[in-house]
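user: Please supply your own:

assistant:
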Amino acid sequence: MRRPHLTSDKRAYKIVKHIRLPVIDYVNFITDFYADRPFIEENRHLCRVDENGVWHCLLVTQLDSTSRDGVLVMSDGAVYPKWAAYVTDWEYSE
């Protein structure tokens, strides 16, 4: 996931919820995207592509991390990340 992507692959997105995981859970999450995740299941109704083509995503980061790295997740109704993207320097306001 930490590889350059094609400019044509870029999508407009909106962070609809910030999920902060303990370090061990975050490491487990980023090493196995095929596993069902309770935090995705609880929030999958938020993940969608709207009528303007904007992807509504969950932002998953490490709890108590000062890093601006994270993973955008768009489950499209699934309980696992159907699409995911590594992001840096994200902005989210609750």
